[in-house]
Amino acid sequence: ATTDAIMHARRAIARATCAVMTIALAWRATTVDARGFARWSDAGPVVASSVDVGNCDAPAHVVVFWHGMGDYGADRNSMGVLQRAALDALGEENACVKSLTFGSSASRDRWAGYVGRVNDQVDAVCALLAADGAVRHAQ
Length: 139
Prior knowledge:
The chain has 139 residues and is α+β, with helices and mostly antiparallel strands. It is built from five helices and five strands.
């Protein structure tokens, strides 16, 4: 019975996720091409930033977190907990922990996790980290 309940819950979550994505796609898409891919109305440049904690002036170690779908890089109750755990493990004086964000707000960052252009996000993160002194000088 427990396995059936778990499977039922997983199916319900999957259906709800599909429904939310369908609504979101219908709301945000301006056109759909022949392959069924949506063209987004806000297809501007992708900008990455990070929320930094620890010793980011002269760190021995740099840890970069890239959150998953539905999360927000600056959320103290999710990514902040992971950042704190990394600092506790490495020592606050030895580490700089960065949590990546995309967009100018929590909602834009969450949205980018679902439908953001991943190749553009990778390029933006590479540019961000290449220009970051803590990353360049870490051991």
